[in-house]
Amino acid sequence: MKKKTKLSEEQIKLAEKLKIKLVDKQLRDQLKATKKSSNKTILILGALLLVTLSLALSFLKSDSKAAQSTLIDKTKLISTSLQASFSPPFSQLPVDLKSTLKQTIIHPPHNTTEMNETLILQRECIIKYGLPLEVENKFGMKFRLIPPGQFLMGSPQTEANRTSTELLHESEIKYPFYLQKFETIQKTWQAVTNKNPAKTPKPDFPIQDVSFNDCLFFFQALNTQLNLAQHSYTLPSEKEWEYATRAGSHTPWHFGKDLKLAPAYVISKYNAFPRYEKNHLLPNAFGLFNTHGNMQEFTRSPFFIYECKKDQYAHSWDFKIYDGDHPEDIVLPRNNFKVETRSQGRQTGLYFHDANNDGLWTNSEIIWAAKDPLDPIYKSSRDTFIWRGDQNKDTDLTSFDKLRGVNGNLYYNDKNADLSWSPGEEIWGYNEWKRYKSGYQIVRGGAWSLELKYSRSAMRFTHSNNDKGSYIGMRSCRPLYKLKELPLEQQSKNRAAWDSFQEGLTADKTLE
């Protein structure tokens, strides 16, 4: 008995082409041989051949899917089921939302403590705030409940392919919010705005070819049509997006580190067609689909450096001025600059002459360290001249006497912690514009066309406010900033109703 082989997509496509050519030839031969036959006979023959071809191709495709599925250990995957929705008796659900008739229930794999804790957090939010798990608005946009919580944002230094902007730090979401279950689709965009900007109109596909500013106009129209205050519906913040995507995980992807599981969760160019099909793959623990892959998604957060203060050095964003090794080294002033990102800097006793009076150091403005850290007036006989910028190397330093200095945006790396600049200590300039990249929004989630490494939970992209792309879309967020936990008595009644609801589901399952 021959061993069944696993066919690649390329082999399948080749087989399809060969079979089509073969069938075409067979059909032509049959037609020539039966010229005198009736038209009915010819049609029957053609139909039979086409059925044969269809069955052959179906077998090849199913064999390919079977081969792919053998790579995934299904015991490690989330599973889902549709159940009747639970509406807490004491509810704080906004009037623009209603509970869905059915809700997606997440069944985590065995031995997944973090995922179980996430589901408990979500359940407690239902009880404490009186909010259904899954809701929708009049435009058919479905949302999942995301509870308040703490998490580690960014990535550890050991994570492969991380970038320098992904500093791992503690973060917290202090309010519940609803996040759209899927990306916003073209049909919804058109219903709200009467326009579909997608270059390839497909109503049930995610909106694309929109800019950040286009998204703002969409939410303005959505809030107006629902008679809500502006910003009631909005893009998720970067923090909300990562917290919701991680769903309690601390790994590069919400499903873990094992890339063999990726085809079950991530819509990418390697594993899925059609790439936008709803429910094609599995959600995360919060019940959100396509947060990895499929479409990159706009957030409402402008770019900034995580947890990096003005007096800390930010590699690639601040500008190196002087490595401190050789005073007045004009040729190679930064060749030995060794300050690590987020090193603490000081301004004590460091001054520059603000020649253009803009409050910031610019090249060609001299820098010195004052002997008296509180005296901003340069005295050549007393102070240490550090940097002359574009000044002539032979300029007499006494010509700078009595110039007034400012601290401005200069810092130095106080290695010996003596609160004053010493030879060998690097100097840099803080660049506020670069730290925040004015005009650039953070985009999250890897697009279908990107490598999986670019779909990590912590991966950050920047995008201009007006730029558009077929690979960028969005999902809607409904933050509930002002919502407070219900009184304990009402929480108790919500909990009792929840327990009764769960018992009813168990009883129905037993009857089946």
TrEMBL record:
Q: Which residues form the Sulfatase-modifying factor enzyme-like domain?
A: 145-304
InterPro entries the record matches: CTDL_fold (IPR016187), Sulfatase_Mod_Factor_Kinase (IPR051043), SUMF_dom (IPR005532), SUMF_sf (IPR042095)
Q: Which domain of life, per UniProt?
A: Bacteria
The answer, when asked if Transferase is one of the entry's keywords, is no
Annotated keywords: Membrane, Transmembrane, Transmembrane helix
Residue stretches spanning the membrane: 42-60
* Keyword match Cytoplasm: no
Q: What is this protein called?
A: Formylglycine-generating enzyme family protein
Source species taxonomy: Bacteria, Pseudomonadati, Lentisphaerota, Lentisphaeria, Lentisphaerales
